[in-house]
Amino acid sequence: MFGFGTTEIILVAGLLILFFGAKKVSDLARNVGEAIKHIRGGFSDEAKKDTTDRTR
Predict the structure, then answer these.
(1) Residues near 51 by Cβ (< 8 Å), separated by ≥ 6?
(2) Which of 14, 33, 44, 55 has the fewest beta carbons under 10 Å from its own?
(3) Is 32 inside a domain boundary?
(4) Tens digits of residue pLDDT in 25-40
C-alpha cells in the first residue's frame, strides 16, 4: 500500500490518537466513511440517469 508497512501505519495511527484524541479520530473516520458513501451514491445515481436518458 504505497510502500507503507504495518509498522508505519500503526505509528501514524498512534500519533493521530496522541495529538487529537481517540474521540476526534473516530469522529473523523466516521465522517470520511459517510462522505465516501455519499460520493459513491452520487456516481451511481449519475450512471443510472445516463442509462435512462440513452434509452429514451
Answers:
(1) none
(2) 55
(3) yes
(4) 899 999 999 999 999 9
Could you list the residue range(s) of the whole structural domain that residue 22 is in?
6-55
Q: What letter represents residue 33's amino acid?
A: G
* Assigned domain for 36 exists: yes
Which comes out higher in pLDDT, residue 46 or 22? 22
What's the whole-number average pLDDT of the chain?
84
Q: What is the DSSP string of 12-55?
A: HHHHHHHHH-HHHHHHHHHHHHHHHHHHHHHHHHHHHHHHHHHH
Decide if 1 is inside a domain. Answer: no
Answer yes or no: is 29 within a domain. Answer: yes
Distance set, CA 18 to CA 5, 39, 49, 51 (Å): 20, 30, 45, 48
- Report pLDDT for 10: 92
